[in-house]
Amino acid sequence: MVSILPLTLENATAHMRGKKLVGPVSLTLAPTGFTMVIGPNGAGKTTLLRLMHGLQRCSGGTVAWALPATEARTRQAFVFQSPIMMRRKVRDSLAYPLRLRGMGKAAALEKASHCAASFGLAGLLDSWAPMLSGGEKQKLSLARALIIEPEILFLDEPCASLDGRATREIETILQQAQAGGTRLVMSTHDMGQARRLAQDIIFMLHGAVHEQSDVEPFFTSPQTTEATAFINGDIVE
Amino acid sequence: MNGYADGFWGAWVLIFTFDPALYEIILLSLQVTVSAVIVASLIGLPMGAWLAVNRFKFRRYVIAVLNALMGLPPVVVGLFVYMALSRAGPLGGFGLLFSPSAMIIAQVIIVTPLIASISHQTIRDLWAEYHDLLISMNATRGQRIMALLWDGKRSLLTATLAGFGRAIGEVGAIMIVGGNIEHATRVLTTAIALETGKGNFSFAMGLGLVLIMIAVIINLAIHIAGKTERASTW
Amino acid sequence: MKRLLSTLMASLLATVTHAETLKMAVTTSFYNSGLSEILLPEIKADLDLDVQLIVVGTGQALRLGVAGDVDAILVHARAAEEKFLAAGYGSHRREIMYNDFIFVGPTADPAHVEKAETAVQALQYIAMTEAPFVSRGDDSGTNKKELALWAAANTTPEGDWYRAAGAGMGATLNVASGMNAYTFSDRASWLNFGNKGGLTLLFAGDPALFNQYAYIPVNPERWPHVRYDLAMQLEGWLTSDRAQTLINAYTINGDHLFTFNATQ
Asked: For a Cys-Cys bond, which of A183, A226, C6, C252 suits C191, CB 3.0-4.6 Å?
């Protein structure tokens, strides 16, 4: 099967009500890997991810997948910082993306039940999704995203409000997904998490890509003063 | 004062002895109003959802008109339906005036804006929640509306119940288009008006008590449906 | 759910599709007398005919006939009926029965209506003392008669004391009872009225208060859809000996309400 990657952004910009949020950004996402997008609050991490996924309109420049956008749209998934729960049971929530693709009701529910186990959700299948804990909700979001076997998965600070244990569970799932071939692009606040999971880093500042390199070089020898300050934990303006 | 006490007592007697005249009226009321609410829901619920999800040029004006239509005085609706259905009017050929069908038509016109408006508001809120998720999942427009209608079904039930509450207590329009004909188009509200006018307070109160009980049950149902909604999101 | 819906629709349609049905507009005065409750079941038994009564004031009853929304009317305003026939809306007029109009008012009778010798005089007394008076105000036969009497008295009733209720006979009596005011009513409605309160019958008997009820089928040449055949059947019944017996026998607390006067 032909991949939708690489994704190429060329001078891509995003505006909201006349104000520029991100851009111009030019970068390429290779077909494999785990990219972490880091940077201070307001740097544009979320907007960049949404721009790549198509949730944010591209106001200038281009966002180009290897295949036409209509096809590319069907092979991506997104996990939001604040999990969006449908008002359904866990099992039905998991089955929903399959149903959207035309899978029959019985088949979808069956696959959902199977899938739940690998995400630690087996005991929660009949629970009401909006009533789960924060960690459980994010695991469900992740399961829901991965059940359609996307080629690329975007995650916007998924562990921002989770405790240590939930974070570890999520990270384990992500590593497994990556091992299984899923392209991962994730934003984070957590330097340790970036170091643990990333293969390459995109450091953002004021809506632009300030520095971009593989993970080890970024942390051991950052190129810019802002990156150095950020890694140190200083406030970067 | 004594007359009222007798009336009150007489009312309960009528209710518990299943007085046939009373129950015939109750049955007809339910038939008319339930039919009207079903039709109004079939029109109004998807209409509200469609408005919530689609963006088009005159959307704001359409929503404003919809909200304004909620304030349509029912008796004015009755007047216009009467003039339309009268033999001398444009739809006279159907011979619908002074029949339960005419009453249903009038109630549908009165209640649909209410149901559509509530549906629109609740679906709009739900859409705001689901927006990013459904777009990310590449759901088509039709799939989005289906998901919203299904997940929002408790709130939509509230809309339907609100419509029922409005319709069951309406008297002006259905009096005009129905004619308050005994055994044919006499329902709870119009019968109360009639019996009060005749000075038959027992019967009128019996009807009134039943109407109040129905209204209370409906409002309880709204309350429970609404509460369950909120409880299940947290 | 589906079954519930279809049962509902079926039962709803069942009530709509009657056996032979006739729509007749009758005045509130006639209806409030309670006579229809006696006659309708008999009509059903004898003719297998469901007469659906639309109870409105005479004025509106005539307008329903003009619009073709009813098959026949039963009213009590001679002048208006003649006009209706002259315009071609009714096929003919048949007198059925009569009773009379009366004045009712507070037992204390501040306007001394009881002492009046004619109906016109009674109204003049009321106007002079400006005693509270409730009028039908709804273009009904009763209302037309009341206004005709005011005209005969050379008085225009206006002022706070004159209240137009714009309602049927029963509702108007209710208002009068609640306000302890005078009012003009037909005898039958008064006798059948359940909330007399502090009111009593104060004046009756003037020939000017004669109240004739007439039956008019809507003209089928004007409105082909009307059930003229059924209307004629009903007319036959209303002018029959059977009807005569029932109408003349109708009493409330021993008081006679209507007198049958249809001619063969």
From this structure: C252
Q: Which residues of A fall within a CB distance of 8 Å from B152?
A: 87
pTM of the model: 0.78
- Residue C254, burial from CB neighbour count under 10 angstroms (0-12, 13-18, 19+): exposed
Of B184, B170, B151, B171, whose CA–CA distance to B111 is shortest? Answer: B170
Q: Which residues of B touch A131 (CB under 8 A)?
A: 232-234
Is B35–C9 a contact, with Cβ atoms under 8 angstroms apart? yes
Chain C environment of B100 (Cβ under 8 Å) = 12, 15-16
Predicted confidence (pLDDT) per residue in C125-182, tens digit: 999 999 999 998 888 889 999 999 999 999 999 888 999 888 888 888 888 988 889 9
Among candidates C11, C12, C68 on the partner chain, residue whose Cβ is nearest the Cβ of B87: C68
For residue C225, the distance in angstroms to the closest alpha carbon of chain B comes to: 9
pLDDT tens for B102-135 read 999 999 999 999 999 999 999 999 999 999 999 9
Each of the 237 residues of chain A gets a pLDDT tens digit; together they read: 788 989 999 999 999 988 999 989 999 999 999 999 999 988 999 999 999 999 999 998 999 999 998 899 999 999 999 999 999 999 999 999 999 999 999 999 999 999 998 898 999 999 999 999 999 999 999 999 999 999 999 999 999 989 999 999 999 999 999 999 999 999 998 889 999 999 999 999 999 999 889 999 999 998 888 898 888 888 887
- Asked if the domains at C16-98+210-260 and C101-209 fall in one CATH topology, the answer is yes
Instruction: Find the chain A residues whose C-beta atoms sit closer than 8 A to any C-beta of B.
Output: 53-55, 73-74, 76-78, 80, 84, 86-88, 96-97, 100, 128, 130-131
Residue-wise over B193-227: b if at least 16 C-beta within 10 A, else e?
Answer: bbbbbbbbbbbbbbbbebbeebeeebeebbeebee
User: Touch between chain A and chain B (3+ CB pairs, < 8 Å)?
Assistant: yes
Which residue in C50, C52, C174 is closest to B199 by CB distance? C174
Partner-chain contact A84 B138, CB within 8 Å: no
Q: Do A55 and B152 touch (CB under 8 A)?
A: no
Instruction: Give C16-98+210-260's CATH code, choosing from 3.40.630.30, 3.40.710.10, 3.40.190.10, 3.90.1640.10.
Output: 3.40.190.10
Q: Which of B28, B87, B199 sits opposite C194 (nearest CB)?
A: B199
Q: Which CATH architecture has domain B2-233?
A: Orthogonal Bundle (1.10)
Measured between CB atoms, which of A78, A87, A96 is closest to B136?
A: A78
- In a 3-state reduction of DSSP, which class is residue A95? helix
In Å, the largest CA–CA distance within chain C is 70
CB contact under 8 A, A131 and B130: no
Chain B nearest-CA distance from A92, in A, is: 11
Domains of chain A: 7-85+136-232 (3.40.50.300), 88-131 (no CATH)
Closest residue by Cα to residue B74 from B173, B168, B162, B177:
B173
Chains that touch A (3 or more CB pairs under 8 A): B
How far does the CA of residue A154 sit from the closest CA of chain B (Å)?
10
Q: Determine the topology of domain C101-209 in CATH.
A: D-Maltodextrin-Binding Protein; domain 2 (3.40.190)
Tens digits of per-residue pLDDT, A1-27?
A: 788 989 999 999 999 988 999 989 999
Q: Where are the domains of chain C?
A: 16-98+210-260, 101-209
